[in-house]
Specification:
- The structure is a homodimer of 243-residue chains.
- Chain A is of the alpha/beta class and 243 residues long.
- In chain A, 51% of the residues lie in helices and 12% in strands.
- Chain A folds into two domains: 153 residues, 3-Layer(aba) Sandwich (Rossmann fold); 78 residues, Putative phosphatase, domain 2 (DNA polymerase, domain 1).
- Chain A contains ten helices and six strands; from the N terminus they run αβαααααβαβαβαββα.
- The first copy, chain A, has a six-stranded parallel sheet with strand order 3-2-1-4-5-6, with helices on both faces.
- The longest helix of chain A has 19 residues.
- Chain A is elongated and about 60 Å long.
- Chains A and B meet through α4, α5 and α7 of A and α4, α5 and α7 of B.
Chain lengths: 243, 243
């Protein structure tokens, strides 16, 4: 009977569904924020050194996060607030207009897919049920999904205000999945990988070259059997076998 | 066989599920925006008469709606942009700070339930499956639902970027409902009632004393057999029988 129990465990652990993060996993995002923040540093350069601007902006963003949530609109409001603080109220209306204009460019920015994404998703959708699981601004995320042209590969799209154990549990339940059948793919260890591993799911980390300070995690869970790290999206089908 | 067909039609049309709008249906919302807009008019009073301020702000909001979507953060960003325009750049940083401070008060405002809501929902949840269907800012709507204490009465919460025929259709499908089995309750004819009636569902309009200009609709669908209007939330259980 031992081999039957083994077979049972084998099938029970087979991945049926893959969740994908969107920003910096399927398409570029943090690079757009990085360019906006560089313009912001230049705008305030005559008042403060860049490191001080970064520190103050991040502190404002973290203070406002419970009120604003994630996304460009909250980033803009925190940028305006920080600029007023850092200049002692001397920032001009024209400069604030420039911050808002940068924000409009961010919101209207074309969706640039990451390499191999467009070719890999159709292959995976033949063998797995695919979910898009992203956090941030509802309107902006929906527009990016539409603009990406990837929507048809996904069984469902879940846009969350936060990605943690409770929200992943709710999504698994809604889709009738056990953690054993689920793998999450994303660039953030903190939001995409660690909460899913903690539930008993699998996680595939695809690092992006920039990580927002808020998503930073010291150590990768390299000792976890259901964790993989890949360098390129094209390695994903192979990484999923055996998870 | 005629009476059997009649019985069939009778049961097919029985409401099984009620969707509720949230802002200005379950709790006060537009009154919070109205107070913020009054402060905004005063802030700009030395530059422009109130009607001109209102007109300019609404025009900015409508222009930015495809980028920002609904909610307080977009309202704030449009308010700042309009204030810069209307003052020819002469608005001070301190005044922009005041606009942001008003926004923080709006986002942190306690949830004030409308009369009879707290007593009526538990009764309805015994006979119907209840859904909360709201549009706007994900983070803010979730915090208001949590603060309302009403969450437990709802089978599911759906936060949308827009409420139209396509989004209602998706929700009915997700919950395995036919339009005949569904009634939507809300204060906005445009967002809550007309798209649901067009699908073949039922609609109960509970007017709020203020309607945002964007939600304004000229004529109520009084000739539609599956439409009701009530003055108080307590009239809802009676209004639903026969729909």
């Amino acid at each position: 009977m031992d081999w039957l129990a083994g077979l049972d465990a084998y099938f029970a652990a087979m991945i049926r569904c893959i969740g994908f993060d969107a920003d910096d996993t399927l398409w570029h995002n943090e690079s757009i924020f990085a360019r906006a923040q560089e313009r912001y540093r230049q705008l305030l350069a005559r008042h403060h050194p860049p490191a001080e601007v970064d520190r103050a902006l991040f502190a404002t963003e973290m203070r406002n996060l419970p009120l604003y949530g994630y996304g460009v609109k909250g980033f803009l409001l925190s940028s305006i607030e920080t600029a007023i603080d850092l200049t002692g109220g001397k920032i001009s209306a024209a400069e604030i207009r420039e911050i808002i204009a940068t924000g409009h460019e961010m919101l209207a920015h074309p969706v640039d897919l990451l390499p191999d994404v467009a070719a890999t998703l159709p292959t995976l959708s033949r063998d797995y049920r695919l979910l898009l699981i992203t956090k941030g601004d509802l309107q902006h995320q929906e527009r990016k999904i539409a603009a990406s042209g990837l929507g048809a590969h996904f069984h469902a799209v879940e846009i969350l205000s936060e990605k943690d154990g409770a929200t992943y549990e709710r999504i698994l339940q809604r889709h009738g999945l056990s953690p054993a059948e689920f793998a999450m793919v994303g660039n953030s260890l903190k939001s995409d990988i660690l909460p899913v591993l903690a539930l008993g799911g699998a996680g595939v980390h695809v690092p992006y070259h920039i990580t927002w300070q808020h998503e930073h995690v010291e150590a990768a869970p390299d000792d976890q059997p259901r964790f993989r790290r890949i360098e390129r999206f094209a390695e994903l089908p192979a990484a999923l076998t055996g998870l």
